[in-house]
Every structure is written in structure tokens, then in C-alpha cells.
């Protein structure tokens, strides 16, 4: 019998594990193994590490196995706490008649991964309509015994321009989203279109709803291309899992991405995910993504989401996404002159976010 | 007349390497089931009596029913307190009423 080829182990190879056929890794010395676990924890890939060890694809010593068991169990226990908080949140929202959709890790773990244990996550993400956004945050913080992580930038900003409100409940974070990302790409999303054709799933005996499979894929692309910097691998694995799930209508993805002016983001993320993980490269969306040529303007906006001042540069370009002068003026006023409570909480200099951005930029 | 035990449909759980993490609906903290715990959890997918559970575990781990029965009974109580499982009264046929759970073995 011939042994299967053994590949080097790193966060990328773990991210690709089982994505396309079977992987067989080589053994890793203890020191490198510690680094591997650290990397995989950062990239939210510990669930896949657990699967690799459990199936024997990643050979480990007894010490290494104990390490994996301990870390994976801790993340899985955290995932369950997050899911319990989602159920409590949904019960409250239902009781006050506020519609909701479950986003990201909690939904993806149950909808597109073959086993939810493969997808770990750190917090709960729930979409709320703009008109309910502020009230939902207020009621949830009160009933769940939580507090807002940060005060509102300026009165009315959240409902008009905000992406999310984070509520801290003990060690847990609940992120209420109005849109999917900060900056122009978040503002270009036609928010009503996020609510169409929701995909149901069951959690703790309850029927919950995620976005449509197409909106889930676009959201995963936004998370992969515009989210953490440097990017984490988990959102790219999410993209591949969504493509493999076979529930995504490719034409609808392109239509939604076009409507939201996000085709360059989707194409970039699809390219990165399928090429790096070496899977789903023949999917029609991957083929479309390879052929897509972003315009100079799209490339400029994409670049604003990178680098150490990205939080500020992408926010600054938001002005471009606003149709009216009145919106632009209100937005700029909030950035330059946030409310005192916000400035204090963020320890901002006079001149608000604009001055902080300049300091970072230099 | 022996009661049957089964996972509650509102329980949350995950499979780790050699353990199962279970979070019942009654609050508290997630429980980690190690050792024979994951095997017990698998058997609790469908309704099963303590006697049938003990019998299957004894056979699987090659030990006597008496040896496992006390441990299993204690674990069942613990899981019930955590809101992870519940029991239903027997329906008059004693041990014969036990359903065959899907263990995945």
C-alpha cells in the first residue's frame, strides 16, 4: 500500500483541509505545533484542526492531542455560549416585534459546514432593519444586562449611516448590524434586498433565518476582502463552503453585487479564496471572478479598506456613497465633531475622527 | 415502567476530539463529557432507559452492567439538572419499551 503524499502544515493548508478531497499532513515538531495552533486560533480555524486530528489526517503526539483538545473544546464551549445568547436575543426581538436575520459564524456553521464543530466563532452577529436599529440596541442592552461598547458617534448617526452596534454582555459580544460593512461598500448595499429569500436553519429547537444563500456569499466575500487586516482565513473558507453547498444562484449573486456596486469586492474575494485554497476553481462564479476587471475607481475604493489607517480612509470615502449634500454634510459633521460622550470613550482629540485619521496616516 | 431518557430538542452541543460539549437550556455553563460521556451522549439521541443504556455501554466497553449503571445514573441526573436531557415515564412495558437509538457506530 502506498502512503498518500504528506503536505506541509500551516494555517493555509488547514484552511484548505477537506475543502477539495482528502489531505494528509506530515507530523509537526512541538515548537512548530505551538505556532500552528496559535496561527489557526487567530484565523478561526481550530475547528478544522480538531477535524484533522480526529480523522487522523494530522498525526499528533499525546501532548499535541491534549493541546488541541483543550483549545478546541474552549472555542466550542464559547460557540455554544454565543449561540445561547443568540437564542435569548431572538426571543426578545420577537417579543417586541423586531425582525432579524442571523449572520456570519452562527448561521454558516449550521448551514454550510458539514459539521458545525468545524466552524468556530467569537461573537454573535444579527441583522436589524434601520428603523428598528436603535430601539433594538436599547431594549437588548437593558434586558440582557449588557452595555453598548461605544456611545453613538452623534445623535441619529447609527440609524442613518452606522454599520453595527456592539453590545457587551459579560464576556460575550453581540453585534447588531444595519448593513454588512463600514465605508462606501456598506452604504451602497440596498438594505431591503438583504431581507429577501431568507434561508432557515434550526438552532436549539428554534427555527431561525439567515440571509439568502446569495447574500451570505456576498457577505462572506465582504468579510474576506474588507474585514480584518491582514485578512483571516476563515471567511475565505466560508466562501468555498458556500460555493460547495450548491445553494447559490450565480446569476443572482452577480445581480446583487451589481446592485450593491460590490462586483469588484466579490470578484477579488472569490479569486483569493478559490486560488489560495485550490478548490472550486471551476465554479462558474470563480470563472466569472477571474475574468472580472475592476475599474480604476473600484480599485481605489478597495484600496481604502487596506493599511493601518483603513478604518479612517474607508470611512472618508463614504462621502462618495451618499447621494445628497445634506447626508454628506451630516456625515462629515459627525466625523469631525462627534458627541462628547463618544470623544471621551474613544479618547479622541479635538477634531474627532478626522484628526485621529490624520495622525495614523502620517 | 422504567422511564426513558433523551436529549432535549433545545440543547446545544458540539463534538470535540475526544469529548462532547453540551449546553443545556437551563443556564449555567457548558458541560464537557469526556471518557464514556460521548458514547452516552450518542445513545441519548433517541429515548432509552437506564438499563438499556447501561447494557449497551457495558457491551461496548467490555465491562459489567453493574459497573457502569451507577456512573450513568449520576451522569443522567447531572445532564437533566443542566437542562440537556429529560425523562419520560415508562409506558407499562418496562425495559422492553426502549427504542433503538442511532449511535452512529
Care to describe what's here?
- The complex is a heterodimer of chains A (about 350) and B (about 100).
- Chain A contains 18 helices and 7 strands.
- By secondary structure, chain A is α+β, with helices and mostly antiparallel strands.
- Chain A has one domain: Beta Polymerase, domain 2 (2-Layer Sandwich).
- Helices cover about 55% and strands about 10% of the residues of chain A.
- Chain A has helices at about 10-15, 30-40, 45-55, 60-95, 105-110, 130-145, 155-160, 185, 215-225, 235-245, 250-260, 265-275, 285-290, 295-305, 310-320, 325-335, 340-345, 350-360; strands spanning about 100, 125, 145-150, 165-170, 170-175, 200-205, 205-210.
- A 5-stranded mixed sheet of chain A has the order 1-2-5-4-3.
- In chain A, helix 9 (about 215-225) packs antiparallel against helix 10 (about 235-245) and helix 9 crosses helix 12 (about 265-275).
- Residues about 1-5 of chain A have low confidence and may be disordered.
- With about 100 residues, chain B is α+β, with helices and mostly antiparallel strands.
- Chain B has one domain (about 5-95): Alpha-Beta Complex (Outer Surface Protein A, domain 3), CATH 3.90.930.
- Chain B has 3 helices and 6 strands.
- Chain B has helices at about 35-45, 50-60, 65-80, and strands at about 5, 10-15, 20-25, 30-35, 50, 85-90.
- In chain B, helix 2 crosses helix 3.
- The radius of gyration of chain B is 13 Å and the shape is globular.
- The N and C termini of chain B lie far apart (about 30 Å).
- The model of chain B is unreliable at about 90-105 (pLDDT under 50).
- Chains A and B meet through helix 3 and helix 4 of A and strand 2 of B.
